Amino acid sequence: MLKYRFGLLSLLLFSLFLGAGEAKAQEILTLENAVRIALERNYDIKLSANDERIAENNVTRGNAGMLPTVTGNLTNNNTIQNSSQTRADGQVNEVSWGQGSTLNYGVGLNWTVFNGFAMFARYEQLQELEKLGEANLQLTILTRVGDVMNTFYELVQQQHQLRAYDTAMAISRLRVTTAQNRFQIGKAARLEVLNAQVDYNTDTTNLLRQQELYRNTQIRLNELMARDVNIRFSVPDNILIDDQLTLETLSTQASQQNPSLKAAILNRRVAELDAKIVKANRYPVVGLNTGYNFNRNRSALGFSTLSTGNGLSYGVTASVPIFNGFNQRRMEQNANIQINSAQLQLDQVNQSINSQLASAYQTYLTNLSLVRLEENNQRIARQNLEITMEKYRLGSITTVEVRDAQLNYVNATVRYSNAQYLAKIGEIALKELAGSLNL
User: Is-contact 12 409, C-beta < 8 A?
Assistant: First the structure.
């Protein structure tokens, strides 16, 4: 009996490491490496990082309208025309195809020194938009890292199920061999051989389907890491679950770190600054201008055929809005409505996060309980399978009972891996909502 138990243990270990030979030629992808590769290559993260850099580049006083503008100007016009001029004494001067030209060039400076403080509100708004870009980048990173971790642990779960199906197929192969040997010596009917072969074919089909699912999940993870989707790899088998999470701590972290909540707060602030910019249109606009210009005029006919000049010009411009068809009032009303909408969106996001946290936390607690339950069920199913296989060797049990024990073990293993996976996914979702997702 000890010899047979050793044989069954060897069979299960064989199925456990069935893919070891293939795995040697494959990459062993750890979670840390998967996340690192995704952070470096994922297209969504790169695109969001570019948007954040644009928002950062936009934070300048010049973009806010606080600095002067300097322009260089050049104008050169030429004419060819017939001209006639009659002087006061009756003398007539005529020129045919006379040439003339006008040349002007110089440098001018324009500077708006006051526009109702709109430039200061705009500069502050640009700073808030930069923070909004950072919050959006953080949200993209959290989302894509969460996707990578979910897919990674999905692969771990599928590896567990692959081994369960490997075990089932190995046992079915043993049953086919045993049934054929018993049939040849006249101790079993042909029906036992056929039943064993049908069960073996069923387990082979299940294994092939699971292998297909596993390969497709590999492709999906490669896509998230933005690398060649044809790369084959394996992942470590362990799923470590953080079972110390508390709803109170998660809620506190979410109120401080959740990027969606940060973005909603920043959007409200941007709307408030928009209202300031609109209200600034009620105030005068004062500007300074100065420049240095050179001009030269040449004509074929006239009192002066050539004149030149150069020098400095300067001045002040001011404008006061008086009436614009009540558009100012309309724009201010709309700006206040936008502030109200931004506040409503903030309240909505906050409520949604709290709702998702409460729901996800309850699911997380349920899955933790299921992990403990299914772990015990798998242990019992394994013991039952060992006892059943021993009885099958002694010929004191039917093949139907063997098949039941075999399926019970496979199903218990699958349920246990599913429970582990769902508990881990729940943990990741909670930490993602709290903005505290890490390795």
Answer: no
